[in-house]
Amino acid sequence: MSSQNIDRKIAVIFATDVVGYSKHIETDESATITNLRACESLLNDIFGKYKARLFNTGGDSFFAEFESAVAAVECAVEFQNAIKRRNSTLEATVKLEFRIGINIGDVIKEKGNLLGDGVNIAARLESLAQAGGISISKGIFEYVSSKTKLSFVNQGMQKVKSNRFHVYDVILDPTHKRKLRSQFGSKKLTMVRLIVLILIAFVSITYFAFISNDDQTISNNVLSDIRPKIIILPFEIQTTEANFRGEQADLSLSINNTLSDLNTDVKFIDSNETKLLTKENFSYKDLAENNDISFVVTGTVQNSKEFIRVQFRVVEAASSETIFKEQYDFSIEDQMISVQEKVAMYIMKGLSRHILSKQHVFKYTNEPSTYFDLIKIDKAILKSTVESVTYAGQLLKKNLESSPNDPHILQLAAFHTFASTSLKLVDDPVSEINKAIKYLSNGIKFVKKADPIYLYLFAQKSIYQAILQQFDLACSIIPDLKQYENRIYDDHLSQFDFGLLYQVCSSNGSSKDQFELGVSHMERSLELRPSAFNAKYLAYGYAYLTFQYGMSTEKLNSLWISENSKSQHNDEMALPTISALLAYSYEKKKDNKLAAQTLEISNGIGRKYTAQTPFSDYPAFQSKNFLTDIGNILIPLGLSD
């Protein structure tokens, strides 16, 4: 064919195929084919909705042309969500997962088929996508980013075979956040570092299940920790005194070790990797683009005859902009371990104020050992197991004795009594709840009015009063709290407890608007701090809206998909609870088959959800009819009474 007769055009290309198709075929050929046909039918229906033209298929792969970049991305999102829903049912005897790549580029029309780089890059994008994920080219991103409400992660320039292209991931839920290492990073890597990276990759095989592509393996397709990564560079020692330099040389290393041992909402790079990266003398931009570093901590240490001065700053690596900087003076007589712990606390507090809306700031706490204990206590209570709550109680006892007026300790002490009561670790629940109210009443005395923790303490106190059936007293605080709602937007604790209180006080059917406002607060809390604990109580809110007002199951179903997709859960009752409540909502909407299937899933995971669980989970809920109805509806389907 002469070049003059080649028919070219610009097209939006959608490419998808099944993850691990060959292995599925080897395991059960008939079942795999049957399930693939069902998925193909689903895909064709969605293609029809978005006016796509399927121009090529190859067993488990499908290529389609779209008239619109937005339509292609929306189609991909709908298809992946549909596949997730299908895989959560018993109909999916083989749970197939798909990768999707979308590109816009120059293509050649040939007998109804499309050829050329525009198609090839879509296929390469598909090979880079995660299982159940969507990767798009920069051209597609520029068309759709301002026209949809979707979130994206910039993966930078990538290379597959001979193709180089800029990749963006579409984020369907928080578990889809990852970072692909750029194929075009710094050439400064030493042989030692390469050997270390190879060893790390080898060891990682014991922790990660690599999903293989039938034609090629993309080794950098492994998901990483989605928490912001922070590196603490060696502090500069600005003194000529040899003894002083020797004593302070490991200050930043000690600070790093203190913080990297904590389970917080940020990840501190460990000391070994820090040493490697420091030797390379990378720029901030290199650290951001090639090493997935979000923030860099730098500092200086000076001395005089009377004091040691430590200055540090936190820099956003990508922009090289200083987020905050602080300076502290310590007596020359102070033990270095005390200086290290205090500087570590100041760094963590500063980060919490400036970049961590998801983590509560224990700002009334100034003793490092107490501060770090509170982080451990908070995490342990949220884990909500007998062992973790018992451990939290031991730490709380020590800290209540040493700091009886710290509002954060009192807040967590009250939270702990509720967790202990829910897990049936106490003999007298009423006495424990009254103890919690005393903790909260005492804590309120030591904080400023309208501070988020002040509002949290008041809301929490009212919730505990509601548990004791003192609803008039508990709900009388709502008019006063409402005037402060605009002050809690980024405080997950206050959002959760405002939401819970609004739900409790309207759970007798008195106000749909107030109950829905409570749900929206709990949704915001979950957004700020994704946790199984928050998700579980949001599920009760959705289920009640179905019970009382006939709300559809869509939001509860989305919550279930999101929680089910996570690799692990802190709260052993989260998934059983959410799936049982989804089954309940399905049955209320007369979808008996889905209800039975979902309850079967609930009965097979975590600690068993029973007809009595709603009463221990939600003792403050006024509508006992709702809590009873959950059991009445689900027991005939197989729920234990």
In words, what does this structure look like?
The structure is a single chain. The chain is of the alpha/beta class. It is built from 26 helices and 14 strands. The strands form 2 sheets. Strands 1, 2, 3, 4, 5, 6, 7 and 8 form an 8-stranded mixed sheet that branches. Strands 9, 10, 11, 12, 13 and 14 form a 6-stranded mixed sheet that branches. The longest helix has 21 residues. The N and C termini lie far apart (75 Å). About 7% of the residues have low confidence.
List keywords for this structure.
eight-stranded mixed β-sheet, 14 strands, single chain, alpha/beta, 26 helices, 641 residues, six-stranded mixed β-sheet, 16% strand
SSE layout:
Elements: E1 7-18, H1 21-27, H2 29-49, E2 53-57, E3 61-66, H3 69-87, E4 98-110, E5 113-115, H4 117-128, E6 134-137, H5 138-144, E7 151-160, E8 163-171, H6 191-204, E9 229-232, E10 236-237, H7 242-248, H8 251-260, E11 267-268, H9 271-280, H10 284-291, E12 295-303, E13 307-316, E14 321-331, H11 336-354, H12 368-383, H13 386-402, H14 407-422, H15 429-444, H16 452-467, H17 471-475, H18 478-482, H19 492-505, H20 512-528, H21 532-549, H22 554-564, H23 574-588, H24 592-603, H25 613-617, H26 624-634
Parallel strand pairs: 4-6, 9-11, 9-12, 10-12
Antiparallel strand pairs: 1-3, 1-4, 2-3, 4-5, 6-8, 7-8, 12-13, 13-14
Helix pairs in contact: 1-2, 2-3, 8-11, 11-12, 12-13, 12-14, 13-14, 14-15, 14-16, 15-16, 16-19, 19-20, 20-21, 21-22, 21-23, 22-23, 23-24
